[in-house]
Amino acid sequence: MKIIIRTIFLILLFNISSFSQKDSSLLKKTIQKTKFSGNWYLSYKYNLSDNENMFELKRGYLTLKSNLNKYISIRYTQDITLDKEGSDAGNIEIRMKYLYMKLKPFKKGLLINTFAEFGLVHRPFVDFEQKINSYRSQGKMFIEKVGIVNTSDFGIMYGGLLGGKLSKSSQNKVGKHHPGRYGSYTIGVYNGGGYHAVERNNNKTIEGRLTIRPLPNKLTGLQVSYGEIYGKGNNISNKDNFTMSLFAITYENPYYILTSQYYFGKGDYKGEYFDARMVSAKNEGYSIFGELKIPKTPFALFGRYDNFSSNQSNNYFKSGYFGGITYRFLKSKVFVFYENDYFSDKKTGFFELVLEVSF
Question: In terms of CATH, what superfamily is 35-358?
Fold first, then answer.
């Protein structure tokens, strides 16, 4: 992938001087419609279990978005992280997180607020949750943290809003993402292994999310969601059944955010959860998150509790909680938190200071 990107860049560089005036004008218009953005998660972590401490690049994202015309746009997002495994451990590694074409073909009628993505695209539920819970820089969302599914994959996704859009004033109060007056939905077909894995079977995974906003006038920020996945784990045996059923209730307003979810299913997207009979393991779990914004200040308090279990042969169990305080500035934030995790018979506890830079 790196070689391909560099080759494309060199071709553009050496041919830019030979563009005709018309081509140059077209290139200029395309550049004017292109937007760059980024997110960097930098941290200092002190582990109470072994007294280790380190500065770290947790994640870095660099995104390019461009509107080719009023119907078609593209997105390119690099995922920059620290390699912690193998002979390259310690090196900064660059992967692709998103690389897709987005179509919005309908400008009027019932399908005006629908879209489709082709390529390395979003997966429905985690993308929805991260638009409400803004603490991805603390760590992964619950359903990704326990290894059931991740954020993006190669495939096709289709989505839209229900009942038109909320008013601008309502969006300013409860969030501008997924602003359907009565809810939103997404459904996709994927390889299944996620953005950092090759396809290891001949199966495709189907994943969908349906969100309802039951009281758009009185409780605008309240949403009830159901997510479903059906397919196989990304395993060469092609026998690992993978199902996910997830119910979630979320609430947003200018003063606080609350989310809760309950999950049950079989297996996982990697094909690693199985029991002593080599049958896909049954799993279940729940998570609760909250953020309280202190009025008239840039400070907020936040916390989350997770609980997950699986009937694997080793009786996998994981629970954990974290809580801290945040200071927001510009589009960025800095926060400190304490996290305690319990994994089977092992406990860990640590403090972490995180700087999230967004531009």
Answer: Porin (2.40.160.10)
